[in-house]
Amino acid sequence: ATPTAILAGSGVAAASGVIFKGGDVLERLARVTVVAFDKTGTLTRGEPRITEVLPVPGIAGDRLLGLAAAVEAGSTHPLARAIVAEHARSGGKDTPAEDVRTVAGGGVTGVVAGMRVAAGNRRFLQGEGVQVPDDLQEPAPGETAVHLSEAGCYRGTLVLQDGVRDGASDIVRYFQERGVACHLLSGDRQESARTIARQVGIENVRGDLLPADKGTLIEDMQRGGAVVLMAGDGINDAPALATAAVGCALAGGTDIAIETSDLVLAKGDLARLRLAHRVARRTMAVVR
Ligand code: ADP
Ligand code: MG
């Protein structure tokens, strides 16, 4: 491979908002056979809106939101940002939380006014020893539920909805037309993952995944001979981004995602991935 051709290829892409970290990335990108997409913040905009606040009887809606905002304040997760923003918009006061911990793919815990508060998905709250009611109306497909507990008691649920990102269907179609299989790997519920997948034209969907699971699935595919590109935005994708032959981070995502990836798309613009792939294929055709 001639370094000059590779450098030229990288240069073209950099001018267009794609950053390659190292010349060998082009080589791998040109040979990609599978693209695995993260859902939240990658195929979706990552700007969810709260559509419902559902406290248990005896708890006010704004108190539930305030509890959630208190423990989510330090988190960069799109769900956390939406909760904090909605709390501020509704004029809620900032409540300090201590000892805040984030569990990737699960949620957050912290101590608010002396009581342990947890916010996250059903599995995460169950792991906290919290009984989330079974008969709870599941959110509509495409919606995500964030459950809340205080001192080990279930306090209610916030429902959030996120839209599909511009260009998501286009990038999926682009790869599929070139024989590159597209997968969706999500930490969100299977139904939510499936709904977004259907909207963008992806058939291979895996939901309810822990961050490490995403990495393992990619490892398995690569052991089977696939050359996998993983596109993701968040802290939760770091293991998958690092494992994939090509890790692609959407800028605007987290710093750790950008650090662990080989390819960064400016402004989270998925169309730039197509550009990067074209540049890689042309460059490697020249090189070979
Ligand atoms: P995706 O793979 O779709 O990008 P993530 O791995 O980021 O999803 O998160 C998976 C799930 O973990 C979310 O759908 C949510 O239920 C839960 N979760 C993660 N972080 C948080 C948080 N800060 N607050 C509440 N829930 C969270
Ligand atoms: Mg994500």
UniProtKB/TrEMBL annotation:
It comes from the Bacteria. Keywords: ATP-binding, Cell membrane, Ion transport, Magnesium, Membrane, Metal-binding, Nucleotide-binding, Phosphoprotein, Translocase, Transmembrane, Transmembrane helix, Transport. It is found in: Cell membrane. Belongs to the cation transport ATPase (P-type) (TC 3.A.3) family. Type IB subfamily. This is Cadmium-translocating P-type ATPase. It comes from Geomobilimonas luticola. The chain holds residues 468 to 755 of 806 of the full protein.
